[in-house]
Amino acid sequence: MSEPPRIPESELVESFVRASGPGGQNVNKVATAVELRFDVRHSPSLNDRVRHRLEKLAGARLTREGVLVIRADRFRTQEMNRADARDRLAELVAKAAVEPKRRVKTRPTKASKERRLESKARRSTTKRHRGKGGYE
After folding, report:
1. Helix pair 48-58, 78-97: axis angle to 10 deg
2. Which domain holds residue 44?
3. Residue 71 is part of a domain; what is its CATH number?
4. Higher pLDDT, 93 or 133
5. How far apart are CA 46 and CA 62, in angstroms?
6. Strand 33-39 relative to strand 67-72: parallel, antiparallel, unpaired?
7. Is 37 helix (H, G, I), strand (E, B) or coil?
8. Does residue 121 lie within any of the structural domains?
9. Percentages helix, strand, coil for the chain, rounded to the nearest 5?
10. In whole angstroms, what separates CA 135 from the centre of its chain?
């Protein structure tokens, strides 16, 4: 397994915004939430395969322009939210770097086909014997 690509600091754009959630009065005056932006489509650090998988994994966090936006506001401090956002980005990139295993086509065995047909026949007989309720 290959190592996930390393993303240089220069490719990341961080902005600090006000967070919702815990923090009391402080939450209204201090920008502790971090919005981390990473341009997936134009990053020289990623090869095409990893880029494609990362775009799929990002889902709604990816803008039309191909910028991945990660918002971190779990913690009360900028430093912890910053580390959280970077960890989440690293996790996503590492997951995208793993090449999925190709599915090997298999065929059902003769015995499994026979078991399936036998159970269908048994079920059919059970249903056929259910009467229409001959009430007098």
Report:
1. 120
2. 9-97
3. 3.30.160.20
4. 93
5. 16
6. antiparallel
7. strand
8. no
9. 45, 15, 40
10. 59
Phi, psi of 87 (to 5 degrees): -65, -45
pLDDT of residue 122: 95
Decide if 127 is inside a domain: no
14-48: pLDDT as tens digits? 878 776 766 666 666 677 788 888 888 888 888 88
Torsions phi, psi for 77 (to 5 deg): -115, 150
Average pLDDT for 76-95: 87
3-class DSSP assignment, residue 13:
strand
> 0.85 cut: is pTM over it?
no
Task: Give the number of C-alpha atoms closer than 13 A to the C-alpha of residue 88, restricted to the C-beta side.
Answer: 21
What does the alpha-carbon distance between residue 118 and residue 99 come to, in Å, rounded to a whole number?
40
**pLDDT value of residue 23:** 60
Give how many domains the chain has, as a whole number: 1
**Domain for residue 4, yes or no?**
no
pLDDT digits (tens, 9 = 90+) for 58-78: 888 888 888 888 888 888 788
Q: Look at residue 46 and tell me if it is in a domain.
A: yes
Q: For residue 12, what are the contacts with CB-CB under 8 A and spacing of at least 6?
A: 36, 37, 38, 86, 89
